[in-house]
Amino acid sequence: MDHVDGNALAGPLSELFRFDLTTTDGQCRHCGDVTVLARAMVYVDPSGYVVRCCSCDGVLFTVVTGPERTWLDLSGISGLQIPH
Amino acid sequence: MVGRWHVGTVVSTNTETPTGRSITFDVPGWTGNIAGQHVDVRLSAPDGYQATRSYSIASADSTERVQLAVDKLPDGEVSPYLVDDLQVGDQVEFRGPLGGWFVWKPEQQQPVQLIGGGSGVVPLIAMVRSHAASGSSVPFKLLYSVREPDDAFFADELRALEGPLLEVTWVYTRKTPDGWPTPAGRVSQEILARATFAAADNPAVFVCGPTGFVETVATHLVALGHDPISVKTERFGGK
Amino acid sequence: MAIISRGFAGRSREHNPELPPGQYLTEDFPVLSAGPTPDLDTAEWTFTVQTENGPTKWNWDELHDLGVEDVHTDIHCVTRWSKLGTSWRGIPLDAIFDKVETERDFVMQYSYGGYTTNVPLEDLLDGKAWVVSEFEGEPLDPEHGGPARLLVPHLYFWKSAKWIRGLIMQDSDEPGFWEQNGYNMYGDPWQEQRYW
């Protein structure tokens, strides 16, 4: 299975966020690159997603969906700019 | 509307390619979508098992009709069902419309370059349809790469829409039509240089298809001088 | 309440008594990944065990010289597929730990590319784990973790790190990549220990 891109997250993240994360600019904690999250590389696993910086491949965030909970680790993002 | 599932009922299907078909759904409560958006389709089996996949929307209007076009993956779990089994009257669930980045709106003023591989043409045809319906006078170019002529989605419609505001370039990677002036081959930097808007034209660029295709094309476009940020990409996975 | 899609069944999900709970059988070998496949050359490849006494490092040939054996086993992925009767070839962790002195009881596996996963040392010894470089008689494909990966078949397969680079001995059971993100610290498929 190859990777896809941040566009694929629009649906799953719509369950968690009120805004479209894929049109949001995020800053990568590892390399400092700021870009819209639709451009991130997304590795898809039936249990979860690993989202990586398109510039340095560092992990931006992960989403793991369990039967009763979703675990979201945003520690690879040092900031988000959310348009109004 | 965020995160809500709508029920869609199949009203018609059309065979597009040997492994693909377009499917039109009636979705009560659907308020339309922007060209380029996608939906998540969820299927539920009687024992409670569910599978969800994303598909780009081929239609772009504000009616309650949603058209998708699906290519059957050889080891797929959902696509074989959608292409081979789904019948008029059957139901699936939709979440969407989704995605605000890989979209084209009629208010946009830049020339538009669309590049699609295989079923990657689906969000691009939504953009072509939106453009035609809006009366926008912005010029569009579409470069569509398929293995052989029968593998093209919406081929007749694209041919009918060709004109002063839509230029279509066909690239055949495995087998060309009879009398085709060039041999079969993949999209190359030379073909892109010849058939697409130059970086200096400041086009809005949309590239969609299998991951390998999208990344190869995007690399060529950057080599031709396009700013990476202005080349919007949507990867379907795969080579 | 989700509506049913007529005629949809999904992948074959027969219950097979040989399988752990919640698993189904597969004939192919799905590729699941948390990141890009690293491009590795065995000429530059090394394997290191880091203990409280310092590191012990082997290159490709040196590690294989410790002794290679055949392994036939079943594997179980947390995403519900199981594959029965797989064959591998590799170096048992027992042979590696014969050359290492440590008082520590826990291990962090780490991979080229940055993946990590934790496991108690006793789950790597007594014939329970290998560093494998061959699958079904062929060199291990990069997509499946080649040139070498850990094989710890009695636990869910995310505990068998692909592109293995080494092991770090730990005093306590610290969580690795997926364990920090909702996956179980131990991962016994027979007790269905998938999540926290």
Commentary on this structure:
Chain A is mainly beta and 84 residues long. Chain A has one helix and eight strands; from the N terminus they run βαβββββββ. Chain A has one domain (4-79). Chain A is 6% helix and 42% strand. In chain A, strands 1-4-5-6-7 form a five-stranded antiparallel β-sheet, with no helix packed on it. Chain A has a three-stranded antiparallel β-sheet with strand order 3-2-8, with no helix packed on it. Chain A starts with a strand and ends with a strand. With 239 residues, chain B is α/β, with parallel strands linked by helices. Chain B folds into two domains: 5-98, Beta Barrel (Elongation Factor Tu (Ef-tu), domain 3); 112-235, Rossmann fold (3-Layer(aba) Sandwich). The longest helix of chain B has 14 residues, at 121-134. Chain C has 196 residues and is mainly beta. Classes of the chains: A mainly beta (84), B alpha/beta (239), C mainly beta (196). Chains in contact: A-B, A-C, B-C. Chains A and C meet through β4, β5 and β6 of A and loops of C.
List the helices and strands and how they pair.
The complex is a heterotrimer of chains A (84), B (239) and C (196).
Chain A: E1 4-5, H1 10-14, E2 25-28, E3 34-36, E4 41-45, E5 48-52, E6 59-65, E7 70-73, E8 77-81
Antiparallel strand pairs in A: 1-4, 2-3, 2-8, 4-5, 5-6, 6-7
Chain B: E1 5-17, E2 20-26, E3 38-44, E4 50-56, E5 65-71, H1 79-85, E6 91-98, E7 112-117, H2 121-134, E8 140-146, H3 155-161, E9 166-172, H4 189-195, E10 204-209, H5 211-223, E11 231-235
Parallel strand pairs in B: 7-8, 7-10, 8-9, 10-11
Antiparallel strand pairs in B: 1-2, 1-6, 2-5, 3-4, 3-6
Chain C: E1 24-25, E2 46-51, E3 54-59, H1 60-64, E4 69-76, E5 81-92, H2 93-97, E6 106-111, E7 116-120, E8 130-135, E9 138-139, E10 149-151, E11 164-170
Parallel strand pairs in C: 1-5, 2-11
Antiparallel strand pairs in C: 2-3, 4-5, 5-8, 6-7, 6-11, 8-9, 8-10
